[in-house]
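Request: Have a read of the protein record below and say how the chain folds.
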Amino acid sequence: MPLNGELLKQMNKPSDKGKSIINVVSFDASSHKAEGEISSELEKLGYSRRVVEEREGFLKVHYYKAKSPVIGGIYTDQDKESNGQEKTLTRLYWQES
């Protein structure tokens, strides 16, 4: 999936149900703009979205598609850079069996 962000870390964590995949991505945008970009790309792949939690500077969303693992997204606003650029730290995760 093409994204306008920087992949900071990719982790695979074993569990009883398989393994959890976690990608940590930094975006030069607010949490809502970053989520909109990811949501748009996942919608093209047939996913729908549901907001799980939303508060100032924080957004948690689940993306659903039939016969596919649920993809979770946690979007957290970071301090703005000295030039005023907004930053978001995003964690995308799903379970593989």
In short: The CA atoms of residues 28 and 87 lie 5 Å apart. The two ends are 21 Å apart (CA to CA). The helical segments are 31-44.
